[in-house]
Amino acid sequence: MGSEKQGFIWLSGLLFLNIFVLSTADVHYYEFSLQESPFTKLCSTKIILTLNGSFPGPEIRVRRGDTVFVNVHNQGNHAVSLKWEGVKGSIDGSNELIQPGRNFTYKIELKDEIGTLRWHATSAWAAATVHGAFVILPVATEDYPFPAPTSDQTIILGEWFREELTEANQTITPGSADAYTINGHPGETYGCSNDTTFEMQVDYEGLYLVGVINAVANETMVFDIENHRLTIVGQNGTYTNRSFTNSLTLAPGQVIDVLLLPNQNVGHYYITARSSSGTHITNGILRYTTTTTSF
Ligand SMILES: *[C@@H]1O[C@H](CO)[C@@H](O)[C@H](O)[C@H]1NC(C)=O
Ligand SMILES: *[C@@H]1O[C@H](CO)[C@@H](O)[C@H](O)[C@H]1NC(C)=O
Ligand SMILES: *[C@@H]1O[C@H](CO)[C@@H](O)[C@H](O)[C@H]1NC(C)=O
Ligand SMILES: *[C@@H]1O[C@H](CO)[C@@H](O)[C@H](O)[C@H]1NC(C)=O
Ligand SMILES: *[C@@H]1O[C@H](CO)[C@@H](O)[C@H](O)[C@H]1NC(C)=O
Ligand SMILES: *[C@@H]1O[C@H](CO)[C@@H](O)[C@H](O)[C@H]1NC(C)=O
Ligand SMILES: *[C@@H]1O[C@H](CO)[C@@H](O)[C@H](O)[C@H]1NC(C)=O
After folding, report:
1. Which positions make up the signal peptide (predicted)?
2. Global pTM?
């Protein structure tokens, strides 16, 4: 009798656990549209291929273990397929070329990937403008294996070409970009007063989880924030042991998650990205928005 009762309790506990696990995995639906959009940078305008008209493309934000359906409508002029870099599970139709006028739904089943990943168009010329972040947060009941950030931010290092890229551009050689960009902003180093500069606003002693993505084809990028040390906590969709650094070196396609603690004199500091080959440099700004509360 006693053991039967225990068995019952054990079984109901198991059922409860099962329901609990199921209820924490969510299903997300994204509708995206591939389109040709005019953009002005370096004081000249050209048409680029974009996802939903933005450069870089929209961010996908989900939690560990979730399932994501991404329905991509191709309203552009070229056949394109998207790649979900660093996702371990099977992805339905991952090699499918989506023809102009057609749509295709990717089904992405996440397993234990965590942190920042990236998605991009498969071909090099399209990937220059069609790329974005895939942010995977811990499930609501899960703690970070490091101090919990108060906020998070994605920084995508990209590049810009004055001329149009087409299917003729199957490869992109290092050093061929006319500018580097931070979240699409070339900054003030290229001599066009109309160019915009990326700015990240922070609170003094807030704690920021920053996912830095190198979306520059074929070039290693060096990234730093003036006067601030960075704590590396993750890479390519896994958390890693913590390590400290003054600058990040990112291989093409590499993603590094860092913690940033704004604990310097209140003010603004340069964010810098340059290629290791040294052809160009781009700046953004880290701006403290609050003053230190002293007593
Ligand atoms: C992208 O565009 C589609 C179609 O215009 C729209 O339904 C969707 O909400 C947009 N998604 C985002 C993330 O902006
Ligand atoms: C800068 O922007 C202004 C306002 O949009 C525009 O009138 C001007 O032509 C632009 N200058 C250049 C060099 O693109
Ligand atoms: C195309 O989009 C429609 C409506 O948005 C959807 O019902 C259909 O399943 C999609 N087709 C594919 C192949 O994903
Ligand atoms: C793209 O291809 C064209 C034609 O082959 C070439 O002139 C141009 O330099 C290429 N651009 C880049 C960035 O590789
Ligand atoms: C990278 O550049 C080299 C030439 O330096 C070229 O052979 C290679 O195809 C390029 N890779 C990509 C992905 O564009
Ligand atoms: C993290 O550090 C622990 C203890 O020093 C070590 O056993 C483990 O292998 C490290 N993990 C990684 C991913 O480096
Ligand atoms: C992360 O991904 C990049 C690009 O694919 C690769 O070069 C790098 O070695 C990867 N790092 C780790 C630790 O897996």
Report:
1. 1-25
2. 0.90
